[in-house]
Sequence to fold (135 residues):
Amino acid sequence: MTAVFIAAFVGVRAGRMVGKHAMMIAERVLMLFVGGTEVGVPIRIFAPVEDEECWSCRAEIHWPDEVRGETLYGIDAVQALYLTLLAVGCHLYMSDAHKEGRLRSGEPGSGYGFPVLKMMRDELIGYDAHFDGNG
Fold:
């Protein structure tokens, strides 16, 4: 992977923050089968923020037993956001919940709506495979 996944707070210029964190700009809630019931798994994407040398963008996956947060960096806001979306897609497709068929967005097997690295496209299912897969 060319991106380095670092969970860290990056200082930003005034006016770009809400409280201590960047503003949440998007959320998708996936469903996870746990012990015979479904629970929500919110995925939150935060606005890219600029510091003196680069841009950063944060995402959080709120699993029932932990919150997995990642901050990705890019040369501009677009690259930071794109790398963050890729990281979310990679984490979802590599998760035990996906491998065990317990994770869904919409209909089971339809995909999650996040991009993945090119070398992972054979792992895609449903609409993800249809629109972004290798086939």
